[in-house]
Amino acid sequence: MRLPPRSVWITLAIAVMVAAAVGAWLWLPPAVEVVHPVRGPAVEAVYATGTVEPSVMLPIAARLPGRLVELDADEGQRVHKGQQLGRLEDTDLVNALAQLRSQEAFAKSDYERDAALLKRGLIARAIHDKARTDWQAAAAASAKAAAELGYARLLAPADGTVIHRDGEVGELIAVNQVVFWVAVDSPPRISAEVDEEDIARVAPGQPVLIRADAFPGRVFHGRVQSITPKGDPTARSYRVRIGFSEPVPLLTGMTAETNIVTRENPDALLLPASAVVAGRVWCVRDGRLAAQPVEIGAHGDLRVEIVHGVGADDSVVAEPPDWAQAGRRVRAQLVPFPTGASP
Q1: pLDDT tens string 301-333
Q2: What are the φ/ψ torsions at residue 139 (nearest 5 degrees)?
Q3: How far apart are CA 154 and CA 164, in angstroms?
Q4: pTM of this prediction?
């Protein structure tokens, strides 16, 4: 009997191997990637945007209308209490004060003369009393003119830094028009707007993580100082004041992103955020899928805190497939827990 050529046997062997591989692939259960929950920190926070501002910022406004004739301070300059920052035109005020003081001096001398005559019984008391009244009225008018002359000088109310100037020499300044803003010597703070649905979770003293686009990659620390009792009914938000826990390079007017920490668990049970779908996870137990409801605590883009439902030894599907079904046989492939920021 003649045997088939060797090449035929090789071809048959390859065909058998391919058939066996295809059969194994068809009959083996599908593989799923699983992870074990890990322990780590979890943080719940309220997000809000805010603006850096001085803790105390005072406006210096004109109390009388007039033309700005002198500027003695500029933005960024340190000033002291009582220092003149600018001056309005005061020629008319100076002349008015001189006239009133002259009238005051005349009224005073008239009163003193009548007082001497009254002692000698040469005039009636009514004449003396009228002279005294005229002198007092002249003195009051003179004092008022002196005060108005002082209003022409724009003075610093306290030690601080000029952070804004709005006026040029020659410009006509209206009553109550702010010419200077002075930041009083005090640490800066952030005024953030918190949505009304989150404000109940915010309280004074809570730690705050702060980021600013001007300083990428840096995180600054602060604490909630106060919460404005009256909210904005249009924006549906409440203003929250945040103080810094350290010196910061942030400048007045910068926008800051704040995360107000409302709860922190340093030893939370964590899972990848992709593992939780519709309030449950898929576990692999004895080679089969099992749906497990879970209670979620803090959650972030990459990780979630599991309060109840699974333990540290459970094998949880990292990204449940669409075909996941309770009781289906699968092959579990353990993969490393994904790294990333805590929730």
Answers
A1: 788 999 999 998 999 999 999 999 999 999 999
A2: -65, -40
A3: 14
A4: 0.62
